[in-house]
């Protein structure tokens, strides 16, 4: 029997569904991980010319409880997941109730085959659900029966495909998209051996890791005992499918909560994640907004946690400076030379020394505060660099430090860094 979704077909279509097959497939993969799956696999068969008849996304999650269908498939822009959704956790990504309709980006029909454990009957139950692209406001559950399988999970099969072939799901661009979207999550759950596969081959996300650095240190608690923390800093090659977070894991590598780093508003390509593992989080209350009097519970107001956060910010700040001083600064100068923001200098020793000093000062300023040079158009770039060059030519080096100090709160280290770049001509 067909059931009605709490919105019209046109309302679903105009709600902002996935724009292409990559984004659509990602929605179903996230649905699998949201259902506590540890493995999600894309399955398809191709013929000699790469054509495929269907695509299946299979997970070993908890399945879809038939008694909750009205709250899952029946609701739109809302879901059970949304009711328990916490922004401080990565465990639930989908909370809008729209992902199940994403198949319309490249298919005409979707069929869910699911097995779940029914607590009332103490049995495993299986059934299937069908949604057609031309009548998305109806879903049809059928064939419900006791399952011979004791393994829960869901397989969604998309048929009547268009604009895709087998090559679409084997292309490097698609694999790279999955690595960017899910690499941080798979790394977060690597100890639990989470996997994303394409026809039984795991998706490799190692190529998008530019840098991985591990720190281990101890912080003494009020009881005099050392709390050991393992911190893994990762810098990604490209922007990932999550914001830049500190992820806090307990001794079972379960994520307790996450917190934004202080570099989410940068536009310099400093793509990073930080994973923090410790027994300290085995008894941690991430949602305690007041000073807890419970001596057996840790929280954000605890001195150990405050010290930890200070160290974490120091690590990220140091890594960001290293990145800016190296790769980002070189890229900035290359861009400015292409746009003509760096003025032309004659090919003699004196003028080349002037150019070297100008570039050194620009790099130093960029390292101290990258936002100084962000968002500038070509004319603004030329004006900014031209003014710095005029001050250098006029011997106004102290005035540069004074001017920068009025707009940026320089530390003593940053002042020395800038002074070092502002060396006097011989």
Outline the structure in words.
The structure is a single chain. It contains ten helices and 16 strands. By secondary structure, the chain is an alpha+beta fold. The chain folds into three domains: 3-202, Histidine kinase-like ATPase, C-terminal domain (Heat Shock Protein 90, 2-Layer Sandwich), CATH 3.30.565.10; 207-319, no CATH class; 340-421, no CATH class. The strands form three sheets. A nine-stranded mixed beta sheet has the order 1-6-5-4-7-3-2-8-9, covered by helices on one side. It has a five-stranded mixed beta sheet with strand order 10-11-14-12-13, covered by helices on one side. A two-stranded parallel ribbon has the order 15-16. Strand 12 and strand 13 form a beta hairpin.
Blueprint of the fold:
Layout: E1 3-4, H1 9-13, H2 21-34, E2 39-43, E3 54-59, H3 69-72, H4 80-83, E4 109-118, E5 123-132, E6 138-146, E7 153-159, H5 172-188, E8 195-198, E9 201-202, E10 209-220, E11 226-236, E12 245-249, E13 255-260, E14 272-277, E15 284-285, E16 298-299, H6 303-339, H7 349-368, H8 378-393, H9 397-407, H10 412-421
Parallel strand pairs: 2-8, 12-14, 15-16
Antiparallel strand pairs: 1-6, 2-3, 3-7, 4-5, 4-7, 5-6, 8-9, 10-11, 11-14, 12-13
Helix pairs in contact: 6-7, 7-8, 7-10
């Amino acid at each position: 029997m067909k059931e009605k979704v709490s919105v019209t077909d046109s309302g679903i279509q105009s709600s902002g569904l996935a724009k292409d097959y990559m984004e659509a497939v990602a929605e179903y993969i996230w649905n699998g991980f949201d259902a506590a799956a540890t493995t999600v696999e894309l399955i398809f068969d191709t013929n000699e010319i790469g054509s495929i008849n269907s695509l299946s996304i299979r997970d070993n999650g908890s399945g879809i409880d038939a008694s909750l269908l009205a709250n899952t498939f029946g609701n739109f822009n809302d879901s059970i997941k949304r009711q328990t959704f916490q922004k401080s956790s990565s465990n639930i990504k989908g909370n809008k109730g729209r992902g199940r309709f994403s198949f319309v980006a490249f298919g005409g029909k979707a069929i869910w085959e699911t097995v779940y454990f029914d607590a009332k009957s103490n049995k495993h139950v299986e059934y299937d659900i069908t949604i057609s692209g031309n009548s998305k406001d109806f879903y049809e559950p059928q064939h419900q029966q006791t399952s011979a399988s004791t393994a829960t999970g869901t397989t969604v099969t998309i048929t009547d495909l268009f604009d895709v072939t087998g090559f679409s799901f084997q292309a490097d661009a698609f694999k790279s998209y999955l690595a960017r979207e899910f690499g941080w999550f798979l790394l977060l759950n690597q100890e639990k051996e989470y996997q994303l596969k394409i026809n039984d081959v795991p998706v490799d996300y190692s190529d998008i890791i530019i840098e991985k650095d591990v720190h281990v240190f101890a912080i003494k608690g009020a009881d005099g005992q050392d709390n050991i923390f393992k911190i893994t800093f990762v810098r990604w090659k490209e922007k990932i499918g999550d914001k830049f977070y500190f992820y806090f894991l307990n001794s079972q590598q379960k994520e307790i909560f996450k917190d934004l780093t202080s570099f989410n508003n940068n536009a310099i390509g400093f793509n990073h994640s930080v994973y923090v593992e410790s027994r300290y989080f085995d008894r941690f209350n991430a949602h305690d907004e007041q000073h807890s009097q419970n001596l057996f519970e840790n929280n954000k107001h605890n001195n150990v946690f405050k010290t930890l956060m200070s160290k974490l910010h120091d690590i990220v700040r140091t890594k960001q400076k290293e990145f800016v001083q190296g790769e980002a600064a070189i890229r900035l100068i290359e861009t400015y030379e292409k746009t003509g923001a760096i003025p032309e200098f004659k090919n003699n020793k004196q003028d080349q020394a002037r150019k070297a000093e100008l570039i050194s000062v620009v790099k130093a300023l960029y390292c101290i505060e990258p936002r100084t040079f962000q968002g500038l158009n070509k004319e603004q770039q030329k004006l900014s660099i031209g003014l710095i060059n005029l001050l250098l030519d006029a011997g106004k080096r102290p005035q540069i430090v004074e001017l920068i100090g009025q707009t940026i709160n320089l530390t003593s280290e940053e002042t020395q860094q800038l002074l070092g770049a502002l060396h006097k001509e011989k």
